[in-house]
Design a protein that fits this description.
Blueprint lengths: L3 E5 L3 H12 L3 E5 L3 H10 L16 E3 L2 H4 L5 E4 L3 H14 L4 E5 L4 E2 L4 E2 H9 L5 E8 L4 H5 L4 E6 L3 H11 L4 E6 L2 H23 L4 H21 L10 H10 L6 H12 L2 H6 L6 H16 L4 H11 L5 H6 L8
Parallel strand pairs: 1-2, 1-4, 2-3, 4-5, 5-8, 9-10
Antiparallel strand pairs: 6-7, 8-9
Helix pairs in contact: 4-5, 8-9, 8-10, 8-11, 8-13, 13-14
Bound molecules: NADPH dihydro-nicotinamide-adenine-dinucleotide phosphate (NDP) and 1,3-dihydroxyacetonephosphate.
């Protein structure tokens, strides 16, 4: 049955998901704060700021009026970066009218409590009557390939596997394959921290460290992510599926990843401070690096990769220190 879907954010991923859901016959309304993007979607059926010369499904509508965007919503997709989630939730609570299935797509963690962003979202909606269930979408899915309708495999995760199964069907079609899963902690920590590993992989690539080194780095990243996620009750199986292994492989090996590209830019521009000043796009792995570093300190977890990348990003240590030190004295599970 067709659903009324509202997508918060007219960014790259929100637009890509709007296309999938519109292709699937759902009524898709995007909410954006950039008037030019809203007009571009409504008039030209494009979001040319993110995707030049690509037409999106002409049935997608957009608005900059949040109250109107939330009028008849059954499925609410949070398509903004993690730093914007808290603010957006306050606005949704103000204007929301119906009980909605929440689908988070932000790949980040809670920087205040050093915990899960899903816990923040669930807490904000508790007692409002606005949240039917909480779900989140994770997996290797760079927006440009989703817009181009290339085959993509993902997990829709919820505490309730039945809710995950039911809502996975809304997204699934002949190029977008969404599977239900019930390990929110594993998926969320995997998604947030693979972005930081991708920055490290970009640094390796910038230095031409070699294919052996890249493969070892991805393996070390997976290990260290799992060691952290285990503390939050994550399942090991999550690290074998699209949300865990899949998204890590993609982001840590593709120039289509903004996190990977930041790593390359750090090498090209000499240090992280300069590269970050010149970065205009969303790079979630920077905030995740600090959160991972603090979680490791708090939980007394020894993590070679996350410690070194934190020093590079936050104390402007030389990027070469990653290659020189990351494989020394590692703790593999
Ligand atoms: N791009 C991708 O391939 C994928 C991204 N993701 C995740 O999805 C999340 C969003 O990323 P992505 O779409 O790429 O990011 P983008 O930077 O492309 O877009 C983010 C959008 O959110 C908007 N925005 C920011 N704050 C608000 C707000 N308060 N209210 C409404 N809109 C707001 C931005 O507007 P403005 O431009 O004015 O700031 C922008 O249009 C991230 O967590 C990312 O990791 C997940 C899978 C794939
Ligand atoms: O998460 C992504 C693909 O699954 C997108 O990665 P970037 O944010 O690094 O572009």
């Amino acid at each position: 049955m067709n659903k009324n879907v509202t997508i918060i954010g007219t960014g790259a991923y929100g637009t890509a998901l709007a296309n999938v859901l519109s292709d699937n016959g759902h009524n898709v309304l995007m909410y954006g704060i950039e008037e030019t993007q809203v007009n571009d979607i409504n008039i030209n059926h494009e979001n040319s700021f993110f995707f030049k010369n690509i037409k999106i499904n002409s049935k997608i509508k957009a608005t900059s009026d949040l109250a109107a965007a939330l009028e008849n919503t059954e499925i609410l997709i949070l398509g903004v970066p993690s730093f914007a989630i808290r603010g957006v939730l306050q606005d949704i609570k103000k204007y929301g009218k119906n009980e909605m299935v929440i689908v988070n797509t932000a790949k980040g963690l809670d920087d205040k409590e050093l915990g899960l962003l899903s816990d923040v979202i669930k807490k904000e909606f508790a007692g409002t009557g606005l949240m039917k269930c909480y779900t989140a979408l994770y997996g290797p899915s760079v927006a440009i390939e989703v817009i181009e309708r290339k085959p993509t495999g993902l997990m829709l995760v919820s505490d309730d596997i039945n809710a995950a199964s039911e809502n996975a069907k809304i997204f699934t079609n002949e190029y977008f394959f969404v599977y239900p899963w019930d390990d929110i902690a594993g998926c969320e920590i995997g998604a947030a921290l693979k972005n930081t590993v991708a920055i490290a992989a970009g640094i390796f690539s910038g230095f031409k460290a070699g294919d052996n080194a890249q493969a070892s780095l991805i393996t070390l990243g997976l290990n260290e992510i799992y060691i952290i996620a285990k503390e939050f009750g994550a399942k090991v199986e999550t690290f074998l599926n699209y949300a865990g292994l899949g998204d890590l492989i993609l982001t840590a090996s593709s120039v289509k990843s903004r996190n990977f590209r930041l790593g390359v830019a750090i090498v090209e521009q000499g240090d992280a401070k300069t590269a970050l000043l010149n970065t205009q796009y969303t790079v979630e792995g920077v905030a995740s690096a600090e959160i991972a570093y603090k979680i490791c300190k708090k939980m007394k977890i020894s993590s070679s990769l996350f410690e070194i990348i934190y020093e590079i990003l936050y104390n402007n240590n030389r990027p070469i220190s990653l290659i020189n030190n990351v494989f020394k004295n590692v703790n593999l599970v």
